[in-house]
């Protein structure tokens, strides 16, 4: 039963969050200090966000569009 909940409820929620913030970062990429690596930085945003404080600042800039 728990596996069914994980498979059909939690997984789509996590994937939705991943794609939502990834697309927001993609569309706001011009607002960041980054000049290249748009695809890689978008795909790896969760790991970069946790590890790197400069990436967190730029990620927030991209989300706000400022």
- Provide the β-strand percentage band: under 5%
Percentage of residues in helical conformation: over 70%
Individual helix count: 4
- Give a short account of the largest sheet: none
Secondary-structure element order, as H and E? HHHH
Number of domains: 1
Tell me the overall shape: elongated
Q: Which ranges are low-confidence, i.e. pLDDT below 50, for 5 or more consecutive residues?
A: none
- Provide mean pLDDT, rounded: 94
> Tally of extended strands?
0
Terminus-to-terminus distance: 45 Å
**Gyration radius, in Å:** 14 Å
Secondary-structure-derived class? mainly alpha
Please tell me about this protein's structure.
By secondary structure, the protein is mostly helical. The protein has one domain (2-64). The protein is 77% helix and 0% strand. The chain is built from four helices and no strands. The chain has helices spanning 2-27, 38-43, 45-51, 53-64. Helix 1 (2-27) packs across helix 4 (53-64) and helix 3 (45-51) packs across helix 4. It is elongated and about 45 Å long. 9% of the residues are buried. The mean pLDDT is 94.
What can be said about this structure in brief?
This protein is mainly alpha-helical. The protein has 4 helices and no strands.
Strand and helix layout:
Blueprint: H1 2-27, H2 38-43, H3 45-51, H4 53-64
Helix pairs in contact: 1-4, 3-4
